[in-house]
Amino acid sequence: MTRSFPVPDRPWVLQMRWLELCFMHWAVDADVVARALPDGVTLDTWDGRAYLGVVPFRMEGIHPRFTFDVPGLSAFPELNLRTYVTVNGVPGVWFFSLDAAQKIGVRLARTFFHLPYMDARMWTRREGDVIAYASARTHVGAPPARFGAAYRPVGEVFTARPGSLEDWLTSRYALFSADGRGRVFRGDIHHGPWPLQGAEATLGVNTMAEQIGVRLEGEPHLLYSERLDVHAWPIVRA
Predict the structure, then answer these.
(1) Average pLDDT over residues 163-171
(2) How many helices (H) and strands (E) does the chain have?
(3) What Rg do the C-alpha atoms of the chain give, in angstroms?
(4) 197 vs 53, 144, 194, 226, CA distance in Å?
(5) pTM over 0.85, yes/no
(6) pLDDT tens figures, 61-110
């Protein structure tokens, strides 16, 4: 999906790197996912089907503009449950949860971006081209969620063809969130084209979508990306 709206004309405020990322997507019933979205947020579908993505990766180099990495704060594993939406015609990502192994980062993101970050106990290790990844949510008052998998890239690096499913799933330059009063916010990001590969994965436990009443079954659509450098802007009312 080529960018359909301009990069913000104000300065970005946050930079980061996403590493060893695996897109694991399942096509699911659109009505079930739509019921889990707040007013003002419209489900985006592909051929009438909604997609839920479970996305394990590592974050590094996270710091505000004109500052430097802070040991213990600027690198941690993260695990997302996401779907695809539009708000006022702008396509983007809706996160049902973002589990992370960084307590301060979780609280900053919940406060300043209204994103549903959750505390989790997480572990990841790489051996050759295989990434082993495990997560168990520990956030007080949140629904339980666990994930365990091993995955690896296969094939040559490619850029998704415009108009393809791979492009639709990955080329999203806005995220949306809502505060406790139901007000919807938009956060812009920008990055170069995703360097994608095919992927293979062995899934152990995966209860990430049970928080919205969905059990993810069957073989997912898999994509891998080794690294993406990202800039982010402050959120604004959508």
Answers:
(1) 96
(2) 3, 13
(3) 17
(4) 16, 31, 9, 9
(5) yes
(6) 888 887 766 666 668 999 999 999 999 999 999 999 999 999 988 998 99
Which of 205, 175, 201, 213 shows the shortest CA–CA distance to 23? Answer: 201
The phi-psi region of residue 123 (left if phi > 0; otherwise alpha if psi is between -120 and 50; otherwise beta) is: beta
Q: Tokens for 21, please give them.
A: 């990322």
3-state secondary structure of 177: strand
DSSP letter, residue 40: T
Residue that the structure tokens 């419209």 belong to: 42
Q: CB count, 10 Å around CB of 161?
A: 9
Q: Which helix (H) or strand (E) holds 103?
A: helix 103-113
DSSP 8-43: PSS---EEEEEEEEEEEEEEE-HHHHHHTSPTT-EE
Cα–Cα distance between 150 and 225 in angstroms, integer?
15
Helix (H) / strand (E) element for 166: namely helix 165-170
DSSP code, position 38: P
The closest alpha carbon to 77, from 56, 92, 91, belongs to 56
What does the block give as tokens for 215? 């059990």
> CA–CA separation, 135 vs 137, rounded Å?
7
Closest CA to 78 of 60, 52, 51: 60
